[in-house]
Model the fold of this input.
Amino acid sequence: MSQNFSVDLNSDLGESFGAYHMGNDEQILQYVTSANIACGFHAGDPGVMRKTVQLALQHQVAIGAHPGLPDLAGFGRRNMAVSPQEVYEMVVYQLGALSAFVQAEGSVLHHVKPHGALYNMAAVDVNLAEAIAEAVYKVKPEASLYGLAGSELIKAGNRLGLATAQEVFADRTYQPDGTLTSRSLPNALVTDPEEAAQQVVRMIKEGKVRSQQGQDVAIQADTVCIHGDGPHALDFARHIRAALSQEGIALAAKGTPNG
Done:
């Protein structure tokens, strides 16, 4: 009897700011099942947040908060020396902001996924991971916590009894310990849509990814990230959606969209 596979496709959206436009949000929303919306720290502003929430609802896509470090100039991708208390406070603050816009549009927050450096720091630092998980638990205990597959963030969410979704990446290469290759290193990004699609299908069906060093790494794929800010994001989204359909892999957000 053949196994039935299902996966969530997510994308980081709402990352424009003021007069600066980033990404292809409206087009990407045609291909994904959940959206991680920037909350104003690394990107986004009140107008962008509201518009992106409205677009996600129009496309019946599950809405998540995408809290990051307070670093607009660096797009939240630079590590900062932050304490667990500071991380807890900045995540609570950002969840409150996005949740208000979601509530104002008559919906509820589905998930939380940290952004950039905060995400990668919490993947390996148990104290930062617990600070983020606690913030979600205190503000939106019914929301799912999205984190790097096998990471400290997933473990922290599980310890608190949060629903968690283990995330894999279509456009990133992996290290033997299951972490993502740093963007500062060569070949950190997968730029060929066909290669990305094959990597995603293998992660879902076989539970494995080939590391940059050529070793197979065990991995669980509950949700797949397609970055919305890349130059080929739309092409990637089309390719991956088509590959999943061809492989008979169903698409659905974990839980029901927006609730």
Remarks:
- The two ends are 32 Å apart (CA to CA).
- Residues 84-104 form the longest helix (21 residues).
- The first strand starts at residue 6 and ends at 13.
- Residues 97 and 123 are 24 Å apart (CA to CA).
